[in-house]
Design goal:
The chain is of the alpha/beta class and 377 residues long. 33% of the residues lie in helices and 11% in strands. Bound molecules: iron/sulfur cluster (SF4).
Length: 377
């Protein structure tokens, strides 16, 4: 079945591969059959980067942790149950660490796996369910999953790319989410048009602003804890995320002044050197310098709050990971019989696991730290 035929079958109102459905500066690694579509090639590329310390020793994340007196990362109390329900997306942003796009109908969570996630969720004390994708809203069971989590009294987060809200099928979605008290965490690289469009494609900014207006119109972003609107910024080039606390007032003033838009909080994330961002770093000759920048900015104070310690991350095919980034690199949690699947979820075994780390983990501990919840230090 073609992408457009699938869009039609799922009734999104527009073919997802069209620019009207969402701007597209590139295509997925998978669609282009790029070698980096293979996660082992990504891990190899990261391992090849020459990172040497002052004594001429090869720099590794685990050794850096030990050198700073931090020890290995250990699991803390589980607070966030993150579910990636699929890689299908209406956009194909240049820096995507998921390799999402309109062609990614190969990676969609089945109803059975959604039910297994809910069964596993009930075995935990996680207070938050973080639903992500791709564009999670495109999944045919997205609303069922939200309803099921809200019914369980969980704080639910919808990670939203904003432009998806403009698809005809989703015109009622802002009000629907508001009625259920779902927090919307929206990616917007910058409050300026140029930076946003450069990373996500021409026209993204205009569409994002329109989507934010629609969220504001149903009560999001005005200080109501049941209508929390969070914006998420990530750098457009090979830089670290801006300081979240000082950037937030600047963003609030700029979006209010230029567009009359309000939001509740800003979180800032470092780009992780994986998937399409890794491809971009490599192609633009920035990979070694960026990795060195992350290493130089290693901050021991950011280690305690890394998200792998309080989060479980479930992939579209039901495997259990320490975090979204390990998920995208296929570094799954190993149980006694191999990779752990959500249908066999054992909270005690999960709490005993050894968190898997590699060089990409420098992205979480650089500067003020970086996690799905923003800065960690
Ligand atoms: S990439 Fe994942 S495992 Fe590594 S430090 Fe970050 S959250 Fe932890």
């Amino acid at each position: 079945m073609t992408i457009d035929a699938i869009s039609e079958a799922l009734d999104y109102g527009l073919p997802l591969s069209s620019d009207d459905a969402g701007p597209k500066p590139t295509r997925s690694l998978r669609a282009r059959r790029e070698p980096l579509a293979d996660t082992s090639a990504q891990l190899r590329r990261l391992a090849e980067v020459e990172l040497i310390d002052a004594n001429g020793a090869r720099i590794e994340f685990e050794r850096t942790l030990a050198g700073a007196g931090c020890g290995a990362l250990l699991p803390a109390a589980l607070e966030v149950f993150q579910i990636n329900i699929g890689k299908l997306c209406n956009m194909t942003c240049r820096h995507c660490h998921v390799d999402a796009g309109p062609d990614r109908t190969d990676a969609m969570m089945t109803r059975e796996t959604i039910d297994a996630c809910l069964w596993a969720l009930d075995k935990t004390d996680a207070h938050t369910v973080d639903i992500t994708g791709g564009a999670a809203e495109l999944h045919p069971h997205f609303r069922d999953l939200v309803e099921a989590c809200v019914a369980r009294g969980k704080h639910v987060i919808d990670r939203c790319n904003l432009t998806v809200l403009l698809l005809p099928r989703f015109h009622d979605l802002p009000a629907w989410l508001a009625e259920r008290g779902v927090e919307v965490v929206c990616s917007l690289p910058h409050y300026r048009r140029l930076s946003t469009d450069r990373q996500r494609g021409d026209g993204t900014y205009e569409k994002s602003i329109e989507a934010l207006r629609r969220l504001n119109a149903v009560g999001y972003g005005k200080g109501d804890p049941r209508r929390r609107l969070t914006l998420m910024t990530n750098p457009v080039g090979a830089f670290l995320a801006p300081a979240q606390a000082s950037a937030e007032p600047e963003w609030k003033a700029a979006l209010a002044r230029d567009h009359g838009i309000a939001f509740d909080r800003l979180i800032a994330l470092n780009n992780m050197p994986i998937s399409r961002y890794l491809e971009w770093l490599d192609a633009s000759g920035n990979l070694a310098a960026y990795m060195q920048r992350l290493v130089d900015a290693f901050n021991p104070a950011a280690v305690d709050g890394v998200m792998c310690r309080n989060t479980i991350s479930i992939s579209w095919d039901g495997f259990v990971y320490d975090c979204d980034f390990n998920q995208m690199l296929d570094l799954s949690c190993a149980g006694e019989g191999g990779p752990m699947h959500v249908r066999d979820f054992d909270p005690a075994a999960f709490a005993r696991r050894r968190i898997v780390t590699r060089r990409h983990c420098f992205g979480c501990t650089a500067g003020a730290g970086s996690s799905c919840g923003g800065a960690t230090a």
